[in-house]
Each structure stands twice: as structure tokens, then as C-alpha cells.
Amino acid sequence: ANVLQTFAEIAGRAAPMDRLFVVMIGHGTAGGGEVQFNLPGPDLTPSDLLEGLGAFPTQTLALVHTGSASGGFVQPLSGPNRILLAATRTERQLNATEFGEFFAEAVAGDGADLDKDGRVSLLEAFLFTRREVERRYEDENELLTETAVLDDNGDGVLSHDAGLAGPDGPLAATFQLGGISGTSGQLPDDPELARLYQERADIQRRIDEVRGLRDSMEEDAYLDALEPLLVELALKNREIRAAEGGGA
Fold first, then answer.
1. For residue 50, what pLDDT band results from cuts at 50, 70 and 90?
2. Which whole number is the average pLDDT over 93-113?
3. Closest listed residue to residue 116, CA positions, set 237, 226, 31
4. Of the given ranges (16-25, 106-115, 147-156), which has the lowest mean pLDDT?
5. Of 98, 172, 188, 191, which residue is the least packed, with the fewest Cβ within 10 Å?
6. Which residues contact 123 (CB under 8 A, 6 or more apart)?
7. R_g (Cα) of the chain, nearest Å
């Protein structure tokens, strides 16, 4: 009940085009024919959460379930403008997970910034986390007991091999979790650097717009539109590094 009340309160403040980011950290179970997320008091079910998320019909929602049995929990939540990440492919993967540790690392650090644009998208965070989870099990010489998955095209099919080429991944690539290395939204005091940061933010906005149109574009047309912007972004980043005294 508290979770649903919180969603209702947030919905009352949310603008129609806002983005909602929900992270579930804890343990999931699958018994009695229903997947649950363990909470003090009554556990949370997918039906409960589906009711709560119904308060956000126009907003883009990103939901990350880092616990066990998470794939079975998030799959019923699939729909348009929803990005779902889960530590496990199904509710049958019940062991404690490593996903949460590495997802937090992806969000907090710069290791997940795969395209080096100064920001970490939800897709980049997923790819980083998936890689590090698999590496942890390999290093410990243990059998992999969790399979990270993502769904962002609303078809309810959870993909382990998500990426920009789709079918799952393009929407997650447009959902930015925040900036790093001076891109957190706080402009520097130096007027020249502030101008450069604002110009970079404009380039990043245009990149996001192109990425958001990927499903409606031919592959060659998409790359023709995206590649010049990525080059422009790289040049702007180099200009910023030089202005900050870091050289080219």
C-alpha cells in the first residue's frame, strides 16, 4: 500500500513527458504460483506494481529489478514507453544476485560510458552490468545462476543480447542516467567552459533525438544522421578537455 501511495504522490507532481526511474533492490521469490518482491508486511506482486504504474500513462518509465526471480516479476509490466531491466531471465533463478552491485557501479562511475560521450545511458549501464556479472562468475569459477535481461520495445520478450541494433535496446539508449566528468548539469563558473558545456548538451540532445527515431528509419539513413553528430560530440569533448587544461 505504501508503494502504491508513493506512486500516486509522484504522479500528482509529474509532467506528461517526464521520465520515471525506479530501482528495486532486494530479494524476490516465486511460490504459490505468483512472483513476489519481498517487503516488510505484504510482499509486492507484479499486479500491485502494474496498478501503481498505471498512474503514468504518458511518461517514459525505466524500472530496474536487481534481485532474484526478477525476470518473472517485470515481464508482465512490459508496455509502450517502458524500459525493464532484470537480474534474472525467469522467476526460476532464485539465488542471490550480483546484478545490483555492478549496476550501482555503472551509475556511479564512468566505466559504463561505453561511447565516451560523458554520460551513461540505461543501455550502457545494462551492458556494463551484464559483462561484470558474467566476469565475476568466471573469476570465481562458478556456474552462472543469473541472466540479465532487458525489454524496451513493449513486446514482453526479455532480451539478454540487447543493444543498439535492437529489437531491445534503442529506447534504453536514449534514457540518460546522468552525466560524469562535469556533465552532471551543474555548469562551471568559467563562462567559456559553461558555453562549451551548453553546446555539448545541445549536441547530446540532438543525438538522443536521432536515436529515438531509429525504429522508423532505414539503417543507412540512421547511421548517416548519427555519425556526424558523434564526430561533432567527440570534437566538442576534445575542445572541453583542452579548455580544462587536459590537453587534446
1. very high
2. 89
3. 237
4. 106-115
5. 191
6. 150, 162, 163, 164, 169, 170, 172, 173, 175
7. 19
Q: Is the dihedral of CA 98, 100, 105, 107 positive or negative?
A: positive
- How many other C-beta atoms are found inside a 10 Å radius of the C-beta of residue 166? 15
What is the 3-class SS of 114-180, one letter each residue?
CCCCCEEEHHHHHHHHHHHHHHHHHHCCCCCCCCCEEECCCCCCCECCCCCCCCCCHHHHHCEEEEC
The band of 205, judged by pLDDT with boundaries at 50, 70 and 90, is: confident
- For 38, phi then psi, to 5°, come to -70, 130
State how far the Cα of 56 lies from the Cα of 52, in Å rounded to an integer. 8
DSSP annotation of 213: T
Confidence of residue 75 (pLDDT cuts 50, 70, 90): very high
Look up residue 246 and give its three cell numbers: 587536459
Structure confidence at residue 181 (pLDDT): 44
The shares of helix, strand and coil residues in the chain, as percent rounded to the nearest 5, are: 45, 15, 40
Going by pLDDT thresholds of 50, 70 and 90, the confidence category of residue 138 is very high
Give the integer Cα–Cα distance in Å for 60 and 20: 6
Compute the distance between CA of residue 130 and CA of residue 116 in angstroms, rounded to an integer.
19
- Of 126, 137, 190, nearest to 160 by C-alpha is 126
